[in-house]
Amino acid sequence: MNETETLSRKADFPGLVTADGDPWHYLDTAATAQKPRAVIDAMARALGEDYATVHRGVYGRSANMTLGFEAARKRVARFIGAASENEVVFVRGATEGINLVAQSWGAANLKEGDRIVLSQLEHHSNIVPWQLIAERTGAAIDVCPLTENGLIDLDALEAMLTERHKIVALAHVSNVLGSILGAQRAARAAHSVGAKLLLDGCQSAPRMRLDMDELDCDFFVFSGHKLYGPTGIGVLWAREKLLDAMPPWQGGGAMIEQVAFEQSTYAPPPQRFEAGTPMICEAIALHAAIDYVEKVAGPGGMEGLFAHESALAAKTRAALQSVNSVRLLGPEKSAGIVSFVMEGVHPHDLGTILDEENVAIRAGHHCAQPLMAHLGVPATARASFGLYSDESDIDALLRGIERTQKIFA
Ligand code: PMP
After folding, report:
1. 299-303: long-range pairs with CB below 8 Å, 24+
2. Where is the Aminotransferase class V domain (predicted)?
3. Same domain, 289 and 328
């Protein structure tokens, strides 16, 4: 993929220019991705001329909306290599997906003495839901350490797992360090003691080819807004048999079979977990996002996008290595995410100076305070890439860092 290609790709994203029409060097795609025109248009159509509710209407518009909504579920299933669309539960985002698993599967399967494994680098949304269910059930949490270069330490995971461990919940790709989990090995380790594996796929879904069978996990969650789709929609994937054994977590319309005051019965999955009017337009726009991403990826598929972004990350690391005041964090080989700290400059100050140069990075704890504690820093600066990123973004970042150095010298 060359720079001309990404330049033309940038033109698909109205968000990638400033109010003055200058290029905006958006390096915060790990937080949320900019939206291509195709997604914005799909959302506008769904909210406009196509709009109606799903599943209930007998009129044509509603029937069409239902077809569109369910087509989105099928599209997600195909994108992640799921066996059936019945394995795809629409949720509000990854956070809700993890809360669903913790509260439904967790409440039914965890008890006093059971243990949950998380890693040191997890996002708060893959920590707090487990703390809440641990409190309710009497289960306890163990923390899997990291290797020196910031990968989840699978030797340590294998050594710590016992029959008391019921679930292992890990980030597929770290949102701070870009480190990539050896998911299959983690799955083998979890399954060897009869535990389930949940993968937080927030950062992998927009960057990697996914195949649920190959990954061999039990639960997979991601957010649509990081995959160039809208906010307010995400996915929980699990095999039908596992979903079918899980109790509902929220009650309401659409998730029932029969309701009587004496007792109600529930619909099979995925509807059992989708109480209320769903995110109709968001699902349809997510469909458009996946179509766009796969079109851009071309015959090389998601592997091509991964290679493009991780090459940009490697270039950024190589360039930052020669800046004396910069300390890089995380592994050399990563997805398109680079975290660093600058000696004597708070990441927030760096972020503010870069903003003046039309460069947007993330500065803070990235919702990973336990990882910050482990790294011994209160915050990091993070540059993260998307399919529209190119070397002009890295150049702008480096110019801004140089200027920051001069200001703080
Ligand atoms: N996990 C990871 C690794 C993330 O990067 C994020 C978003 N920063 C989340 C979970 C939470 O995603 P959301 O806020 O979209 O639910």
Report:
1. 301/209, 302/207, 302/208, 302/209, 302/210, 303/208, 303/209
2. 25-397
3. no
- Which atom of ligand 1 is closest in space to residue 97's alpha carbon? 16
CA 96 – ligand 1 centroid, Å = 10
Residue 380 sits in a domain of what CATH number?
A: 3.90.1150.10
Residue 169 is classified by DSSP as: E
Active site residue 367: yes
Does residue 35 sit within a domain? no
Q: Are residues 220 and 337 in the same domain?
A: no
Q: Are residues 280 and 159 in the same domain?
A: yes
Q: Is 224 in the pocket of ligand 1 (CB under 6 A)?
A: no
Same domain, 217 and 83: yes
Which residue range forms the structural domain that includes residue 253? 43-295
* Total structural domains within the chain: 2
- ipTM value for the complex: 0.99
- Give me 351's structure tokens: 């972020």
Q: What is the CATH number of the domain that holds 159?
A: 3.40.640.10
Residues 145 and 226 in one domain: yes
Q: Are 86 and 187 members of one domain?
A: yes
Tens digits of residue pLDDT in 267-282: 999 999 999 999 999 9
Per-residue pLDDT 10s for the chain (409 aa) are 665 677 679 999 999 999 999 999 999 999 999 999 999 999 999 999 999 999 877 899 999 999 999 999 999 999 999 999 999 999 999 999 999 999 999 999 999 999 999 999 999 999 999 999 999 999 999 999 999 999 999 999 999 999 999 999 999 999 999 999 999 999 999 999 999 999 999 999 999 999 999 999 999 999 999 999 999 999 999 999 999 999 999 999 999 999 999 999 999 999 999 999 999 999 999 999 999 999 999 988 999 999 999 999 999 999 999 998 999 999 999 999 999 999 999 999 999 999 999 999 999 999 999 999 999 999 999 999 999 999 999 999 999 999 999 999 8
Of 295, 327, 356, which residue sits at a domain end? 295
Q: Between the CA of residue 394 and those of 12, 43, 373, what are the distances in Å?
A: 20, 31, 28
Burial status of residue 46 (CB atoms within 10 A of its CB: 0-12, 13-18, 19 or more): buried
What one-letter code names the amino acid at 3?
E
Q: 257 and 136: one domain?
A: yes
Residue with tokens 């899980």: 246
With a 6 Å cutoff on the Cβ, whether 99 touches ligand 1 is no
Cβ neighbour number for residue 299 with a 10 Å cutoff: 5
CA of 127 to the centre of ligand 1 (A): 11
